[in-house]
Amino acid sequence: MSDSRNLLRTQQFPAVLLLLAAALGLVLANTPAFGPIDAVLGFHIAVPGTAIDLSVAHWISDGLLAIFFFVVAMELQFELTRGELNSLSKALQPAIAAAGGVLVPILIYLMIAGGDQTARGWPIPTATDIAFALGVLAVFGKGLPPAVRVFLLALAILDDIIGIIFIAVLFAHDMNWLYLLLAVVGVVVFGALSRMLPTKHSRLVVAAMVIVGVLVWALMISSGIHATIAGVMLGLAMAQTPAMPTRHALDPWVNGAILPIFAFAAAFVIIPAVSPSELSPAFFGIAVALPVGKIIGITAFGWVAMRIGPRDKGPALTITDLLAAGALGGIGFTVSLLLANLAFADDPAVRDQAILGVLVGSLIALVLSGVVVSWRAAWYRRATKTVA
User: Fold this and answer.
1) If you compute the radius of gyration of the chain from its CA atoms, what whole number of angstroms results?
2) How far apart are CA 308 and CA 72, in angstroms?
3) What is the 3-state secondary structure (H, E, C) of 182-231?
4) Virtual CA dihedral for 333, 134, 163, 5, nearest 10 degrees?
5) Share of the chain residues as helix, strand and coil, in percent rounded to the nearest 5
6) Is 217 among the domain residues?
């Protein structure tokens, strides 16, 4: 059991598992199995005594994925306070590169799919899947200097922050300010309880935290803000001492169950039986903006960022290192799939094609990043041997 959990904490295996789950969902959606699985995903489960009544698919995207964002937020908190983004000087360069990795994909998407029906999908190609990107880096990047991984980690974390802001601001609806205020109060209580750990009454405190966390989630979804933001707020509020052990304990469940289940459900779409010319502009906008926009944006803005600072210090990364980071940044996947579901929630046909665009664009970026990272890692390995 411990070996399997350790495997799920690695960077390579969860990325492979995520890809296989998405592929399985896409394949089964285009077989006779579609009907029974679609019926299960569409089955509604209500919480007695509340207005919460969600389909299984929404329990996955609004419920299970909140736990994923809870884990992400704990990592964000660590990086912002003790890690790679704990000072302005550390955050400036990856922040500028991340800005390019957001702005250029948006521009490319709007150039391709800026029409009335599809323009609202512009946030979709802005995300980077940190698990996938680091998984590719772990598989193909043996020999790369630590600076490349640090830069990519900071870049992906900043991308996560931007994605979280998009979800919170752009996809709120019918706001109930009382529920939102109560949710914030619950977050404060959760944070206070976490600061009581460890204690001789730890089990009672943890039980209370779970109850408060569930209540915050219920209040958040009832307030009109997407429920995953509850996970973000709880993760950021948690005290650092118990946060890292909690993240360590949840990682196998997130990597081995939550993310694969979400990937399967999100990728469970029918491939349209139409010619390429009949596909929605949203499909092409995303499929191009993810791999191309990220490479151009991250590389160009990163090149500028590396030249900001003391003149006697050269850039930390070369242009080819930035190309590798840009290619990795194009793997949108998890957050991009969620954004596609949110952006086109009321237009299932365009939503499904947007999801296909995420899968195609991320796959292109995955292959491209594997090639570029392998090439760059091989160069560094040869350079190391030559110096030795």
Assistant:
1) 21
2) 29
3) HHHHHHHHHHHHHCCCCCCCHHHHHHHHHHHHHHHHHHHHHHCCCCHHHH
4) 80
5) 75, 0, 20
6) no
CATH number, domain containing residue 255: 1.20.1530.10
DSSP states of 317-345: S-HHHHHHHHHHHT--HHHHHHHHHHHTT
Contacts of 288 (CB under 8 A, 6+ apart): 108, 109, 112, 361
Give me the residues paired with residue 44 across strands.
Answer: 55
Name which of 20-29, 211-220, 284-293 the model is least confident about: 20-29
The residue type at 116: D
| pLDDT score of 387 | 59
Reference 216, options 203, 204, 234; nearest CA is 234
Rounded CA gap, 173 and 151, in Å? Answer: 35
5 in any annotated domain: no
The angle at the Cα of 109, spanning 268 to 20, to the nearest 5 degrees, equals 25
The CA angle 132-135-138, to the nearest 5 degrees, is: 155
Give yes or no for a contact between 330 and 362, defined as CB atoms under 8 angstroms apart: yes
Residues 96-108 have a mean pLDDT of 94
Copy the structure tokens of residue 237.
């509020």
d(CA 66, CA 234): 10
Q: What would the mean pLDDT of 319-326 be, rounded to a whole number? A: 89
Q: How far apart are CA 43 and CA 310, in angstroms?
A: 59
Write the pLDDT tens digit of every residue in 29-88: 999 999 999 999 999 999 888 888 999 999 998 899 899 889 888 888 887 788 767 777
Q: Where are the beta strands (DSSP E) in the chain?
A: 44-46, 53-55
For tokens 């195609």, the residue is: 360
Task: List phi, psi (to 5°) of 67.
Answer: -70, -40
Look at residue 311 in the predicted model and tell me its pLDDT: 47
- Report yes or no on 329 lying in a domain: yes
Instruction: Name the residue range of residue 28's domain.
Output: 12-171+226-387
Q: Is residue 151 part of a domain?
A: yes
What's the CA gap between 333 and 134, in Å, rounded? 13
**Residues shown for the chain:** 388
- What pLDDT was estimated at residue 172? 79
In whole angstroms, what is the distance from residue 294 CA to residue 275 CA?
Answer: 27
Q: Return the DSSP state at 31.
A: S
